Amino acid sequence: MEISIKPNPACASQEARNQILAAPGFGKFFTDHMVSATWSQGRGWHDAQVMPYGPIAMDPASAVLHYAQEIFEGLKAYRHADGSVWSFRPQANALRFNRSAARLAMPEVPEALFLDSIRELVKIDAAWVPGGGENSMYLRPFMFASEAFLGVRPANEYKFMVIASPVGAYFSGGVKPVKIWLSSNYARAAFGGTGAAKCGGNYAAGLLAQMEASERGCEQVCFVDATEHKWIEELGGMNLYFVFKDGTLVTPPTKGTILEGITRGSLLALAGEQGLKPVERAISVDEWRSGVSSGAITEVFACGTAAVITPVGKLVWEGGSVGDEKMGEITLRLRNALLDIQYGRAPDKHGWMSKLC
Ligand code: PLP
Ligand code: COI
To answer: If you placed Cys at 321, which of 11, 137, 273, 316 could pair as Cys (CB 3.0 to 4.6 Å)?
Structure first.
C-alpha cells in the first residue's frame, strides 16, 4: 500500500531538537511526524500516511477507551558510525504484532505496511536519531479500536499508528544494577490470558505491583506464575536471564503467559558464541534465592528493547532480599556483544539488521 507523505510545515527548530537530543531521557519527546492508517470492515487498510505529529481526534465512545482493544510494539533505530540508520529484527516485531492482533481479535497489519511505516517515519525524521553512546530512536507502532460503539464485540474500525521518540537509557541511573520487587499480591498473566500479547491492558494490570516496587525503592517488579505462585515469569517490561556457575544461561520458558522478547530470543542465539549454554526451563523463586546465596547463580539480568541488558542487583520481597550491587562480567559481555551488532560495530552474522536510511 502507498503511504502518502504530508510533511510537517512547523518542524522543531534545529536548536530545539539538539537540546532534546543532548539529554533525551526515555519516551518524553517525540519527533515531527507520525504514521496513521485506518482499517474498516469491508475496505480493509486504507489512508496510510506520514503526517505531522499531533493530537488525534477520537469519539468518546471509541471502543478502545472502554474495552481496551489495543496492542503495541517497541523497537529502536540505531545510528551507525557512517551516519546510516538501522533497525534490529523489525520483521520479528511485525510478526509479534500480528500475534498480539490475533489474540485481541483485531485485524492483521500486513508486514509490508508495518515495515514501510517504520522506514518512512525514520527517513523523514532521520535528524531526530541521536548518535553516540547508547542513544537511539525508540519506535512505537500501535493499533486501537476506533469504532464508536459500546456493545462488547470486536470493533469494525481500527487505527494503526507509529510514533518515534529519541531515547537514552530506560533507567534514569544509566547502566547500573537494578533492584527487583517480587510481587506476591498480583499476577500479570494466567494460562489462557493475554500474557504473550503486547497489549496495553497487561501493563495497566501491572501498574499497582510496579507502584509497590517503587515504594520499596525497586525499579521493576517480578511476576510469578498465577497458579502455583512459585515460578519466575518476567518483569513488568522485561524478560529475565540467570547465569549459572557451570556456564548455563537459564531463562523461563514462553508458554503463553510471558512476552516472547526479541532480545530474549536473540540472546538464546548469541549465548553459544559467548561460550554459554542457553536453556529455557522453569526456575522457581526458591531456586533464585538459594542459587544466589550458594553461588550456583552468579549473575541475573533483565533484557528488552528499552532496557537492552540491565544487571539485576537484588531481588527484594516482604521481609528479605538476596543479591548484591555488582555488575556481572557475563552480563556486560553479552550486553556489549548485542550492542556491537545493533550499532554496526560487529559483523551481523545472523542477518538481524535492516538499513532504514
Ligand atoms: N516482557 C515485557 C512484559 C515487555 O514489555 C518487554 C518489552 O518489550 C519484554 C519482555 C522484552 O521484549 P523485547 O526484547 O522484544 O523488547
Ligand atoms: C520495550 O522494551 O520496548 C517495552 O515495551 C517495555 C516498556 C517497559 C517500555
So the answer is: 316
